[in-house]
Structures are given as C-alpha cells and as structure tokens.
C-alpha cells in the first residue's frame, strides 16, 4: 500500500471563508463553470427575483451543498473512527486517553470505507483485474455491464401515484370522499324513494373533495429538480483502452476496470483512480465544490477523505490542463456525483413545525368525529332500530353519520391555511424578505436560537486598515500614508500587502480618489490593497513582479500564499532588504504570505525592523508582536500578519507548472519566514444591529455569533453588537464547562440574568456530550470563534439534538451545509449562489430584516390560531348538536347537512382567510418562542374558548331562534321532544316540512350573523377592539374583514332565496326580523369577550388569565 504523501490541510478543497475572506484566483488558465444564479422552488414555493423561467435548479448551485455536507460527515466519521481505535489501544495498554466527542450521521457510510485512494495504483489495477496496457477484454466488459449496468444516473423515483394520492387524501380528503360515496349510496339504491337533497349533499361533498385536492396540488407543486439537468453534464464519449487498443466509446458504456485516457478539456464520465499523471495535470471540481480553482492531479493519496484526495478524479469534473491515465472505479449511481445528485434531488425530509401542528389538529378532530359516529351507530343499533324503527332507517343513518363528519370537519381550513401562508409570504416579500418555501414561513416564529455569521451580517462588510505595526512599533494608517519615507521597511510592507493580494482595482475607476475606487475581491483583500496603494503604486509593484504560484486564502488554513519571480530589477529594492536584494538572482523566488497571526507566527524566525533590516525573532520580539495582536483583537479589529521568504531557485526540484510544486511551496512556507508587519482592520457593526439583538432577546431568542475571527476580535464585536453584555472579567471559556449534569432550569434568552462564554473551534473538538448539554442550557450569550465550516454544521446539529429550533445565517459557499441543515437557513442578499440555494429564506436588505421575519412567523401562527378559533364554533360545535338532538332526543335535524357544508366552505371560508391579514398584536415580540410539541396550534385552552364559550353561546342562540320561530307558527317545542318523526295532530306533512326548512334556514342565518361578531372578537387574544380597531388606525386596520362579511351575506341570500335551490335543497326564505335579532346575540358575544380580555389584562395570573387561549 502506498503511503499518502505528507500534505498539510492546505491541500484540501478550496473553501471560502465564513467571513468573506476568499480571494479570487488569478490563475485564469482554467476554464471555470459559470454559476448562473437560480432559485429552487420546492414544495409550496413561490417565485422571487432569483427564479428562472423554467424553474429548474441549477446543479452548479445545488450540488456543492450536498458535496460539502457529505465531505464534512466523512471527516467526522474518520475522526471518530481514529478516536475509537485510540481508545481501544489505550484500554489495551492501560494508558490514559481522553476521547473527543462529536456527532456525524453519514448518508453513505460506504464512502468513508473506500480504499481506492489509499491503495497503490498496482493494487487498484489488480483488484479490478485489468491492465494499463491491455485494458479489459470483451468477456470482462460483458460480465461487468451485466453486473454494474449502464454508466447513467438512474431517474429519480417520481412517486407520482403516492404524490397524487396525497393530494386527494391527506387531511380531511378521505373523510369527504367516503362521506360522498355513502351519501350517493343513501340516495341510490338505498333511498326509497331517492331524495334529491341527498344527491345534492353527495355532489357538494365530492366537489369539496376535489377543491381541497386542487389546493393541495397547488400547495405541493414543485418544479423540475436537479436530475433533469444532470444528464446534460455528462460527456457523450470517451477514450479507453480495450483489448490493447485505444477506442472511443459512449460514456454510458464504461464499466469499472476500464483504463481511461484523459486530456485537457475532457470531462470525467466516472470516478477514476489516477495511475499516471503529467506534471501539469489539473482538474476543475467547481460543479461539486463551487470553487473554480483547479486542483493538481496526483498518483498518491493526499487526504484520507475520498472526496478530498487528489488522486481520485470525480465524475462530472473536467481536466483543465495536462494528461492523465486512470482506472475506472465507480460508475452510474455508485459515483460520488451520482450519489450527491440523488441527495440533491430529494426534498428536505420530515415535517415542519406547522405541518406537525396541523396534522395533530386533524388527528384530534378525526378522533372526536369517529367517537361521535360510533356513539350515533350504537344509539341506533341498540335503541332506535328496535324502539323507533321508522325514525332512522339505514339511508338516514348513513346521512346522519356523514353529517357528523361534515359537522366536525372544518372543510374551509385547508383553503384558509394555504391562503394564510401565501399572504404572509407576500407580506414578507414587501419587506424584502424572500421565502423559498411557504412551509418554512412559520418556522422562523418558532426559532429559539439564531447562529449568525459576523462579517457582512452583523458588520458593514466595509473593512478599512486603521493601524499597522513594523518592528514592534505601531503606526496609524492615516499618518503612514501621509509620510514621505524611503524606509525599506515601509516598502516591504507595501510590497507584501499589494502583491500577496487577490484583489484587483477596477480599471474603469482608476482616475477616482483612492477611497472611491472599486476593487474586485473580498472585503479583507480590498482593505489591504487600498492600504498598500496609499503607500505607493501597486501597479508599479506588479510591473516588477510576476506571479508564479498562487494558493488562495481559505477558512481552513487561514492564510494565502503567492510565489513571485522578479521581472524588473526595481522590484528588488522595494520588496526585499538590501542585503537579500543584492544576492537575489534571476530564477530565485519570493514567497509571500498573508494570514492569521496565530497560524503564521510560529513559522517565522525573523522580523523586519523599522530600518528595513531583518532581525532575529527572539522571545522578546515574539511577545511584543503577540501583545500588539491581542490588544488590537480586544478592540474588535481583525489582525493580519504579512510575511515573506526569499527562496533560491535551487531549492525547488519542480517547475511552477508541475503538480508537485504546490507541495514544495507548502513545505517552504512551514518555516524560515520573515515578518514584514501586522495590519489591523476594522469592520464596524451595522448601526441597527444592537437594537436588533435587543429586540430578538426580548422575544426570547438567543443570538450566537459564529465566526472565523480571532476570539478576542469576535468578543469585542459581539460586545458592540449587544450579543455579549457582561464585563470581560465575567466571560468564561471552555474550562467553565463541567462534565457533570447541571441542576436547575435552563437559561431563557429574555432572562434578567445572563451568562457569557467564548469558545474557539479547537474547543469544540474537545467537548463531550455533557459539556454540550451544559453549554446549551447554561449560557445565553455565546460566541464561537475560529470556526471551520465543519464546526458550523456541528453547532447546528448539536443545538437541534437538544430540542432547539435553529436559524442559521450565512452568505458564503462554506456556509451552505449549515444553512441546509438548520431548521431555517437564512441567506443574506448579495451572498453566493450556493448559499442562496441552500437557504430557506433570503434577507435582501440587511440582517435587521430578521426582526420582521420573526414577527411575521409568529403572527402567522397567531393568525392560524385565530382562524381555527373562528371556524370551530359554527363550523364544528354548533353543527354537531342538531345531529345529536336528532338521534338522541327524537328532534328533527334543525340544520340540514347541506347548509353545514355551506357554512364551512362558503360563508366562513373567506372570513377565515381575511384573518391572515391581521396585524400583529403589541406583545408578539415580547413572548418567548413557541415550544415545539408544547405550545400547540390547538390546545385545551382554544377548545374551551371555541366550544365551551363561543360554541355554546352560538348553539343556544341558534336553537332558540329556530324553535321560537316554530312556536310562533303553531308548532310548540313539546311537539318535537321525543317525537321521533311523529307529526302533531291535525298538521299536514307538507306544512310541517316547510316550517322545518324555514327553521333550518333560520338556524343557518343565526350562525352566519353571529359569526360576524365572533370574527371581530377573535382578531385579538388579549387586546380590546378599542386598542386594536379594524378601521381608522393604520397599524391595526384590516379592511379585508368587511368584504368577507359581505361575501357571507351574498352566499346566504344565494342559497336561501333562489327558488330552484329551495325546492331541491330544502332551503327557504328567512323573515327579515330573523336577520336582525341574531345581531343582538352577536353583540353579546363581542361584549362578553371584551370583558374576558379585560380580566385577562387586569389579572393575568387569575383564573381567566390562566385559561386564556
């Protein structure tokens, strides 16, 4: 087995930094894949400014999300495997060993166990029974084609039948369909004679069934997914060796063991283990990683991670330069590309908090409905069938059972729910908050922890160099730029700052003042480049020095390397001390580095004094530099160390174009560096951030800062932002986290007391599960500094595993896995396409918009509660009692089943939807987040309000109005009591039926009218209608209520006053006084509820306060 070459972590994938620190590569020889911004539109998605016309997901934005997550999980898996081995060894030898804990769940565990990259090329060829010279034989090809199949991605499982089935039968659909079928049966053949009212009821139930299915279909519609674009990314043909002959074959015909010949411009049709590579062979993995910087191909392993090593060529990537020979190790769905494409094609699994609440409500309602139907059947079978056989026959029993179902099911809820989600998303869009999925709109209202990036999110992302240090002396940038000095120290500082920089001035703005000139590059490079230009022309430096090799900054290594060769002698005196410049020869190279002081300082052996001469970096000088770094960091400044090293041409064994040159450069960069200087960069917090953090904290949400910055810098910025409020001497570190279980209740974000802790990425690696428990439960002010992308993902998972609903903000490529894993990923407008693709929500304006997003999320949940509180009294409770009194007490069914449907689907539906436009109540951001599984959408308090208070009132009023009307028309209530269909003496059946139809219509009108006042009452849960008026006050008005009331009136007249409906459906005209009398009852409900709310406000700890919904 070939040993992996010793490679530092810099050889890993080119991650962008969490704080927008990645520079753009100047190596333009590679052909980069264009990242066209698109937005996925998943279930219940809505278009936004990023949507394309076709609605398809751009794989270049979607695939890297899964690739990075999978790579992180493999690293975590390998780390835990090593820990397990060390633990076993320590146990066997009796030596102490402290385990390191973590959480990782591999989607494809076998990827971590692959050995193709760690075994030697000869061993790989032997295992695949092939030969580099001869390739596979025809017999081998046939057998392997049979065994492995074609080299094509399998089409995604459409689950079309299951999907369509769900559209029709999820929620109350199955109940409606079964009810419709049963009523059809009751009409014919059981109906003797068939009753037209039953036919009308069956048709209406069937229509509601299809209407709900149509809304579910619109709600769940999704556009074409990634797999539709995958096939276009595979090469059509490729060159292989078979039977000792080079042949061109279709990519789909490749099998494991084929010897593949690769040259510049070729795309890899499968996963390949390189067995021969040219010195300039490089591969562009941007389709998987999101980075267009090409990676050199090697024969030997460079990483234990199969996804990160450079001796494996991954399907879908392309060769940007050089030639290679490789043996195919995986094809079709077994390739990394195929696996990731499959993952990317799958939507997020699991239900959102809102979906779980709605499902819970459906279970509750259906359970009550089934219990009542069983009660009705038992009463009929045990009593009525024997004692009163003519009262309820089998068709009438079927209709009665269906009526119970119709009574309990709020048929208008799915329509109102979908409309509420759409309305809320549109309102958020007006506030420059774009939601990818309607289902996640409410999730933000449940968020208990928000993990926020620092740069560009909490800060302005406008970095400026304020100070620099040379030879232990500090200079302000303003004073230094105004000095006219020929000091070599300043020239060397300017040279490294200007040359070791990925930023580029925009040529179109070169004549503008320096502060106004546009720079292409990340914010750190912009600040350093502008500083270098203030000391002298950077263009002059670039005229004298040419880039030979470039390693871009990344958040793993936290440094950038650029190797230069001089092209003009003037550059020597500018970039080097006099003594070094004198012996610097053509062909020699200048290695320049820029990065984190704690990473680079240990690699340095010298430093440049103020005179420009290199001095030995002794302990005293090292301590001075550390002191300056810590002082600046504690002031919230980012500290960058600049260093260089002159290297003789004889020190390099390979040319800059060789794949092994990077290895040599990294080896040279490990020691012998000379510190040129330090620069301090400030990126002030946004002005609105302290108020935003304060508001979120009052809302019970904890804000955790997660950044790649130095701990002291992060702590200082966190203090300016209001994330940390405690004095510095009370802020603790990892040593304060006990491994013992903590006693007592966890901290609340809005608690008067606070506890602060600052942890680094290195600390996170050492945390045990118990320490994580104590961290999450004991500290409400947390800063994670010096974190890597893997650690961001781990933070999200650890918080979720402890019951928190986590929001994660980010804008870089490396944020994508954490954004995808969070309950709600929040991308910042202007961020990378991959971050936007991974997120559920995009804040177009600034982080301050998150307050509105939380507000809308909570208002959505509140308004859904109000919608249900409005629908249940009339649409459920008051409809059930006419059936129960019909079966149990022999009374006529005073409200027809058909009019029950009209209430649920017509008169109440639009009014319920209008509640989605309700403005938030004053305390919406003063309450703690909703506790998932505890604070339910429908709880016992809401049931008491809807059934025990409003429902009872509406039912009693409606019964009273109906039977009072019958009393006035000569049919006393005593004539109905336990009559079981027996007509009063001397009364014709036609007159009796007509008066019952009129009484049914009065019951219906009474409910409709009282619901107008109930609509005004449920607008607020605690505030008075005077405090929260529906008119005149802009902050609280809701004009949509009144068109909804008018629509309900029109529907009532439509179904009651058209003669055709009267004869077929059994409806009737209602005397005018029965339209106005219910208004008095409605006003009574409104006044009683106002009294209840007053007592709740006045005595929140009283009985009414404790049961308030």
From TrEMBL:
A Gene Ontology cellular component where this protein is annotated is: plasma membrane
- PROSITE patterns, per this entry? ATPASE_E1_E2
Residue spans of biased composition, Polar residues class: 22-33
Location of the protein in the cell: Cell membrane
User: Which SMART domains does the UniProt entry name for this protein?
Assistant: Cation_ATPase_N
For the region Disordered, what residue ranges are annotated? 1-41
Q: Where is the composition biased (Basic and acidic residues)?
A: 1-17
Transmembrane residue ranges: 167-187, 199-218, 358-384, 396-423, 895-917, 1001-1018, 1039-1058, 1070-1088
Which GO biological process annotations does it have?
Answer: intracellular potassium ion homeostasis; intracellular sodium ion homeostasis; potassium ion import across plasma membrane; proton transmembrane transport; sodium ion export across plasma membrane
Q: Which residues form the Cation-transporting P-type ATPase N-terminal domain?
A: 115-188
Task: Specify the domain of life of the species encoding this protein.
Answer: Eukaryota
**Keywords, A to Z?**
ATP-binding, Cell membrane, Membrane, Nucleotide-binding, Translocase, Transmembrane, Transmembrane helix
GO-annotated molecular function? ATP binding; ATP hydrolysis activity; P-type sodium:potassium-exchanging transporter activity
Q: How does the entry describe its membrane topology? A: Multi-pass membrane protein
Q: Which PANTHER family match?
A: CATION TRANSPORTING ATPASE, SODIUM/POTASSIUM-TRANSPORTING ATPASE SUBUNIT ALPHA
Question: Which NCBIfam families does the UniProt record give?
Answer: ATPase_P-type
Q: What is the name of this protein?
A: Cation-transporting P-type ATPase N-terminal domain-containing protein
Organism annotation: Podospora fimiseda
């Amino acid at each position: 087995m070939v040993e992996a070459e010793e490679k530092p972590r810099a050889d890993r994938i080119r991650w962008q930094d969490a704080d927008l620190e990645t520079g753009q590569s100047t190596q333009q020889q590679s052909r980069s894949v264009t990242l066209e911004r698109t937005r996925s539109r998943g279930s219940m998605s809505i278009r936004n400014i990023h949507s394309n016309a076709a609605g398809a997901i751009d794989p270049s934005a979607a695939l890297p999300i899964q690739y990075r997550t999978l790579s992180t999980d493999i690293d975590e898996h390998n780390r835990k495997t090593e820990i397990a081995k060390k633990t076993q060894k320590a146990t066997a030898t009796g030596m102490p060993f402290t385990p390191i804990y973590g959480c990782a769940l591999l989607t494809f565990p076998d990827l971590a166990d692959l050995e193709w990259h760690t075994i030697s090329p000869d061993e790989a060829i032997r295992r695949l029974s092939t030969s580099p010279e001869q390739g596979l034989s025809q017999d081998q090809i046939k057998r392997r084609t049979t065994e492995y199949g074609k080299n094509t991605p399998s089409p995604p499982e459409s689950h079309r039948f299951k999907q369509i089935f769900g559209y029709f039968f999820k929620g109350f659909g199955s109940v409606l369909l079964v009810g419709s079928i049963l009523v059809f049966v009751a009409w014919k053949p059981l109906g003797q004679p068939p009753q037209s009212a039953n036919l009308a009821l069956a048709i209406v139930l069937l229509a509601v069934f299809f209407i709900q299915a149509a809304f579910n279909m619109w709600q769940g519609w999704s556009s074409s997914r990634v797999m539709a674009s995958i096939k276009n990314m595979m090469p059509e043909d490729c060159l292989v060796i078979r039977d000792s002959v080079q042949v061109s074959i279709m990519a789909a015909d490749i099998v494991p063991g084929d010897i593949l010949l690769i040259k510049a411009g070729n795309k890899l049709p499968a996963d390949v283990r390189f067995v021969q590579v040219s010195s300039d062979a490089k591969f562009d993995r941007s389709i998987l990683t999101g980075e267009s910087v090409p990676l050199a191909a090697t024969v030997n392993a460079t990483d234990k991670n199969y996804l990160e090593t450079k001796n494996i060529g991954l399907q879908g990537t392309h060769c940007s330069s050089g030639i290679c020979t490789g043996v195919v190790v995986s094809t079709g769905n077994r390739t990394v590309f195929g696996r990731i494409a499959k993952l990317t094609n799958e939507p997020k699994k699991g239900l959102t908090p809102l979906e779980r609440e709605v499902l819970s409500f459906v279970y509750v309602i259906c359970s009550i409905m089934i219990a009542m139907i069983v009660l009705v059947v038992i009463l009929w079978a045990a009593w009525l069938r024997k004692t009163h056989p003519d009262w309820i026959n089998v068709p009438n029993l079927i209709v009665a059972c269906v009526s119970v179902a119709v009574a309990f099911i709020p048929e208008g809820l799915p329509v109102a729910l979908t409309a509420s989600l759409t309305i809320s998303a549109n309102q958020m869009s007006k506030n420059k908050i774009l939601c990818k999925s309607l289902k996640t709109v409410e999730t933000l209202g449940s968020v208990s922890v928000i993990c926020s990036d620092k740069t560009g999110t909490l800060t302005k992302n406008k970095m400026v160099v304020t100070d620099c240090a040379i030879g232990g002396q500090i200079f302000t940038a303003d004073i230094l730029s105004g000095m006219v000095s020929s000091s070599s120290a300043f020239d060397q500082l300017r040279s490294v700052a200007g040359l070791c920089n990925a930023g580029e001035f925009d040529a179109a703005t070169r004549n503008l003042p320096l502060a106004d000139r546009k720079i292409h590059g990340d914010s750190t490079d912009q600040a350093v480049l502008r500083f270098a230009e203030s000391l002298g022309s950077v263009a002059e430096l670039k005229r004298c020095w040419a880039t030979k090799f470039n390693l871009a900054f990344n958040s793993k290594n936290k440094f950038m390397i650029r190797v230069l060769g001089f092209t003009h002698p003037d550059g020597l005196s500018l970039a080097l001390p006099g003594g070094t410049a004198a012996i610097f020869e053509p062909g020699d190279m200048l290695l320049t580095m820029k990065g984190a002081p704690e990473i680079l300082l240990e690699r340095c052996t010298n430093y440049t004094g103020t005179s420009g001469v290199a001095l030995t970096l002794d302990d005293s000088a090292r301590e001075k530099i550390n002191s300056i770094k810590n002082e600046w960091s504690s002031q919230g400044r980012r500290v960058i160390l600049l260093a260089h090293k002159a290297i003789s041409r004889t020190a390099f064994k390979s040319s800059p174009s060789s794949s092994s040159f990077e290895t040599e450069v990294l080896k040279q960069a490990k020691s012998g560096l000379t510190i040129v200087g330090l620069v301090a960069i400030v990126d002030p917090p946004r002005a609105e951030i302290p108020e935003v953090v304060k508001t979120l904290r009052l809302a019970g949400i904890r804000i955790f800062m997660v950044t790649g910055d130095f701990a002291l810098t992060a702590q200082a910025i966190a203090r300016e932002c209001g994330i940390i409020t405690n004095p510095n001497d009370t802020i603790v570190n990892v040593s304060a986290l006990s491994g013992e279980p903590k006693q007592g209740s966890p901290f609340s974000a809005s608690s008067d007391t606070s506890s602060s802790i600052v942890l680094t990425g290195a600390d996170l690696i050492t945390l045990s599960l118990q320490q994580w428990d104590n961290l999450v439960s004991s500290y409400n002010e947390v800063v994670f500094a010096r974190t890597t992308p893997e650690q961001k993902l781990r933070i999200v998972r650890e918080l979720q595993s402890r019951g928190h609903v986590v929001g994660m903000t980010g804008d870089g490529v490396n944020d994508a896995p954490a954004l995808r894993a969070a309950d709600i990923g929040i991308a910042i407008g202007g961020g990378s396409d991959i971050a936007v693709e991974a997120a559920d929500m995009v804040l177009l304006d600034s982080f301050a918009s998150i307050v509105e997003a939380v507000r809308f999320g909570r208002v959505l949940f509140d308004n859904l509660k109000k919608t249900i509180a409005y629908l249940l009294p009339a649409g459920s409770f008051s409809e059930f009692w006419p059936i129960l009194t019909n079966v149990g007490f022999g009374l006529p069914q005073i409200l027809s089943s058909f009019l029950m449907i009209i209430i649920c689907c017509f008169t109440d539906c639009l009014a319920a939807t209008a509640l989605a436009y309700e403005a938030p109540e004053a305390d919406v951001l003063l309450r703690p987040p909703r506790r998932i599984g505890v604070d339910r959408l429908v709880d016992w308090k809401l049931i008491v309000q809807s059934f025990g208070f409003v429902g009872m009132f509406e039912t009693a009023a409606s019964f009273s109005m109906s039977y009072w009307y019958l009393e006035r028309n000569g049919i006393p209530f005593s004539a109905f009591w336990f009559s079981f269909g027996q007509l009063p003496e001397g009364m014709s059946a036609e007159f009796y039926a007509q008066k019952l139809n009129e009484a049914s219509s009065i019951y219906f009108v009474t409910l409709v009218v009282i619901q107008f006042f109930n609509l005004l009452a449920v607008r607020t849960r605690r505030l008075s209608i005077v405090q929260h008026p529906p008119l005149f006050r802009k902050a609280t008005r809701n004009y949509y209520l009144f068109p909804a009331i008018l629509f309900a009136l029109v529907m009532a007249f439509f179904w009651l006053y058209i003669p055709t409906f009267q004869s077929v459906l059994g409806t009737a005209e209602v005397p005018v006084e029965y339209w106005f009398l219910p208004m008095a009852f409605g006003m009574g409900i409104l006044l009683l509820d106002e009294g209840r709310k007053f007592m709740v406000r006045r005595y929140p700890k009283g009985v009414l306060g404790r049961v308030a919904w």
